[in-house]
Amino acid sequence: MASGWVRSRKVGAYSAALLASTMMTGLAHAQSQAAQSSTALEEVVVTAQKRSENLQDVPVSIQAMGGEKLEQLQVGAFVDYVKYLPSVSFTTSGPGFGQVYMRGVASGGDGNHSGSLPSVGVYLDEQPVTTIQGALDVHVYDIARVEALAGPQGTLYGASSQAGTLRIITNKPTSTGFKAGVDLELNQVDHGGTGHTLEGFVNMPLSDKIAVRLVGWDVRDAGYIDNVAGSRTYTRGDDDKSNDVTIFNKNRVKDDYNTVYTQGGRAALRIELNDNWVVTPQVMGQVQKVGGLFAYDPKVGDLKVTHFYPESSKDKWVQAAMTIEGQVANLDVTYSGSYLKRNDVTNSDYTDYSYFYDQVGYGFYWTDNAGNLVNPSQYIQGKDRYRKESHEIRIASPQDQKLRFVAGGFYQKQKHNIFQNYRIDGLGSDLSVPGYTGTIWLTKQNRVDRDKAVFGQVEYDITDKLMLTAGIRFFKAHNTLVGFYGYGKGYGSTGEKACFKAAVVPGSPCTNLDKGVKESGNVPKVTLTYKIDGDKLVYATYSKGFRPGGINRRSTLPPYQADYLKNYEAGWKTTWFDNSFRWNGAVYLEDWTNFQFSILGANGLTEIKNANQARIKGVESDITWVPVQGLTINASAAYTDAKLSANYCGFTDSAGNPITTCATPQAPDGTVLPVTPKFKANLTARYVFSLKDWDAFVQGSFVGQTSNWTDLRLKERAIIGQQKGYTTLDLSTGMDKDGLSLSLYLKNVFDKRASLNRYAECAESVCGTQYYIVPNQPRTLGIKLGKTF
């Protein structure tokens, strides 16, 4: 094992040297060919305000990465593109289970099966694809662009866009001509295995009014976490060792434990009914199978873990969507609707809880039907069924008028069928949940989140240079949670003993939770924009975002309330030096009121309470510069100062309002909010040149951020520790000719180990000494071959 590791390091170092040498040779050759001709930047078109506009004309803080840019940066998944978005931070436990945050609006502890709704909305084209578990991990291929809209977008995008919105815009069918492409990639991960990617698309005009676009992908991501041999012993805590149980993981030992297989496709049709109406139906689906764990135990070793029970996930989803665009009189009319079906199946090792909560806290006591002690190790079998439908219809007036508007209505319904089966092999039937022999704890619930809204936004040109924008969204939310959670009658005072009526949710023994909450309100937005000239504008915005409240799974706790974010922002969009230098940015102050905070309470059950207030101040900026023909430099950065503006005491009054006056707050006024680093930045330099009759390039990308915490509370921080800052470097080079392309890349050149998440299997105060780190991918060498037709 050690010799393989050393060999892997040497191969990676040699690859880095070879790639760097190739890039330097290319640069030296290119210097002699540099010509002083046009260095103008290309126009970037976005649809952030529900219509196509030049990025530089939109008074919103937006970062947009076009399809070409995504390909240049080797972006294939969620974690690949968010690292280039400074205002975005995230936590993850593996593919398909990422939580995204913007501008420091994060309290930690999100992503539970029945937790708070996300604070950042994620859209696939016109349709929201954010579920309670988090956003879909859409494979990025044949994508027109990714847009990141920072700050509250509630007026146009609704509840789950409290802090911002991410939009993934696909390439649409076109009847202008046939086009197709295929791409093949092979890669090698240091300390791990080999992977591959096969992708392809075809755009076919069926007539001058109808076209179809078909896209498919097959991806294998190599593993790099090793599950190594080990044991764990449970004792009764007395001198009698005859009942001790020692478990081993011999049958689970495996190198490169965390492989991922992703297969999916997309089919879209464009039908031009006449000169005024276009219908675009689309179906997209993906299956992602993950083996192993995406975290390592630093006490065991770098990229190593010792676990004893199956660990895997299967994330399968399909979305059917339709967009209808047309005109009635001089009004643009748009309908967008979608239906999302997502099924997750997970298997998790839960022996840390068994050891630290039961063994250390209470002793070794689980028995079979004969009263004999059994192996107390727990493991979890989970199934989550998500169903989401959304409908939006809006009208927009002509954009060449002095007074312009967009107005519409929105409806969304999300269903979440929750099944969490906590098992102990050999457990007696008297201790088991009825109908589930061997199950010590069962969660079988149905959650439904309903949202209705009407919205409108008006723009008025006060003068040729000064524009006023005003918008508002009126919303209603209705959330319900019904079903069963807890133990059987043979243990504890919760679970079956707390049931008050027969089973409502099929598969549950009875019902001990049936609650709902309704809320309504509005979120406004006002922006004043001043165009200094045709290349420069400044703007000032006040906006408000919201996130609905909901029901706690622990039925003795009250519902948690909606939380709100007020945003005060000033920004600029500027272009300089004959359109060769673009500088955009924004400064902002945000007040987050009664924010929702999730913790793991008794029995490892999530509790959600409204915490208190936070104030967030920040600056975000990005530049694009073409100093000479062929050389493009992109840089972006964000500084975020996110802190509590009142004490977090950890409890609320009878109405659910947070108490902020206490002798020993769990997090005092001034405590830095978790997850978001204070500073995050990236820099990419790309040089294109001619190499004989080929178009060639060399590129380097740097990404870095400062340290951050994963929990709000000081005691828990001290237990689980801080995530250190990190920097990484990616290099690539390649060439193309007549649609044939060949490229070589090296990601994470210096094999830096970044921490993307840091967690324990149960509450930090119980399991926190046994923590895990989710790393970035180790150094990866890849080669790509592509052909377009």
Question: Could you give the topology of this structure?
Answer:
Layout: H1 2-31, E1 45-46, E2 53-54, E3 62-66, H2 67-72, H3 78-82, E4 88-92, E5 98-102, E6 120-124, E7 127-128, E8 130-131, E9 134-135, E10 143-150, H4 154-157, E11 164-170, E12 179-189, E13 194-205, E14 210-221, E15 226-227, E16 231-234, E17 245-248, E18 260-272, E19 278-291, E20 304-305, E21 312-328, E22 331-349, H5 351-359, E23 379-396, E24 403-423, E25 439-461, E26 466-486, E27 513-533, E28 536-547, E29 563-576, E30 581-593, E31 596-600, E32 606-610, E33 614-628, E34 631-644, E35 679-691, E36 694-705, H6 714-720, E37 726-737, E38 740-747, E39 755-760, H7 764-767, E40 771-775, E41 780-788
Parallel strand pairs: 6-11, 15-20
Antiparallel strand pairs: 1-2, 3-10, 4-5, 6-7, 8-9, 10-11, 12-13, 12-41, 13-14, 14-18, 16-17, 18-19, 19-21, 21-22, 22-23, 23-24, 24-25, 25-26, 26-27, 27-28, 28-29, 29-30, 30-33, 31-32, 33-34, 34-35, 35-36, 36-37, 37-38, 38-41, 39-40
